[in-house]
Give the backbone structure.
Amino acid sequence: MSGRQYLEFKKANCKDCYRCLRGCPVKAIEVTNHQAKVIEERCILCGKCTLVCHQNAKVVHSERAEVEALLAGGNVYASVAPSFVSSLGIKDFTVLEDALIRLGFAGAQETAVGAAAVVECFREDLRGGKYRNYITSCCPAVNSLIKMYYPGALKYLSPVVSPMVAHGKMIKQAADNAKVVFIGPCIAKKREAAESGVIDGVLTFEETLALLKDKGIELNNDLSSQDREKLRARFFPVPRGVIKSFGQYPEGYEYLSADGVERCKEVLENIEDMDGIFLELNACEHACINGPCAIACKGGSIKANEEIRAYAGVGNADKVIADTSALSMRTLHKKEHASGFDVSEERLLAIMAKTGRDKPENQLNCGACGYDSCRQKAWAVANGFADEYMCLPYMRQKAESLSYEIIENSPNGILVIDGDMRVMQMNNKAKRIWGVTERDPKGMLLVDFEDPTEYINAFRSGKGFMRKCVHVAKTDTYAEVNAVVLAEHKVLFAILKDITTQVEYEEKLHNLATETLTTTDAVIKKQMMVAQEIASLLGETTAETKVALLKLKKMLQREE
């Protein structure tokens, strides 16, 4: 591993959907804090995550700046993958070669030249049948898949460098101090190039077109010339392209191909049950013409296949445009350790128990989290690659359970009815208010416990209603009813607030006020009577006093 980041995730665009994880054939994506990122030590750079992400959250590392720096230094040659025909819509390499030279390259050649040399090495290996089975080494993503996940198949993996590396060696042999930039549709080539010590930079077709556009260089199709040497290795980008490049097959083997990582995995899992099989494996479905950085053409992969075949041609004997006798086209593929450790059964069960998946009957293996099984996801959790609560069925169940608990334990009554005035949901408080004794009232008619007239009118009009005080005679309960129509869901939703205590309190206040007024009236009447009696008594006493004083006055006057 080179340690360089080749795939990055945009945090703003990652929507916590796990689509990339579901699409990743080796589960080389870590999801923590709702954010996905590539686990470099597990990634084979097949690019599947970039294709399945609808949010464009995956970014392929661009080497454009590095390539421009190389071009500024001069003596840089381009090795162009044969799938340029379908991706760039060019019928002849001359057109692209001219544009690349104007861009600053010292020259450009088709990588098919290196592929032809690789095919000759394959022929040499197949002579004599010393290999029980033989797997091509042209696809770097497949090579990584074998080295990391199927090391038992390493003994069958061809000890030959890829066409890109072979061509790079050929260019550097022909031109002293040359730098080589590979141009193609593959992300895995970026890592292979960095580890090869031969290739100095990699551009995708998209990056190449953007670079040409920014420099104002157009592809001049007028330069197209059909006068070219036939080269069977130009078939490499299509399914069975390597096999087709042989012309005549070395004897002793059955020649088969598989494209797409899942099919390749199936082959590798059963490789020990095969004998005398030559296997052309491609990580991309429909091979390199459908690479993660290929530019889709009208007509899709079938049309691209047809264009490549038409360009490659048939007939004339192949010619390798260089003497490779002094070059080593051999390599040694070594086992690589994919990050992650084995997890004990006890630990797996403990992790699965947190989401209720510890029993076999509860392990749905639905794949919604991105992993193929509950056990695989538990392994990822133990390794720190996943969050234990990424289980969508569990989270949904938890959310529904929480909603249910909130509704059932609400201090207010909750009622949901459909257009037929049948109960869809009624919580415990509503059942107590209306005196409903059914354990599950779902399906009951509203008329069985309440006058439905106002509810029917509300549903028909689409307008809710509010009743300040409703007396439920059955339970001697008073409630305030607030109902709304949810037109989108075609239901009526009502909230009942139990105001019995409030009504009783107000009634007590009313009774107390009435009693107080009665008492006050009686007191006033009594006081008035007392006042009248006092006044009466005071009136009699005054009269008597007046009579006595008058008598005294008269008596005194007489004495005078």
User: Anything to note?
Assistant: The chain has 19 helices and 16 strands.
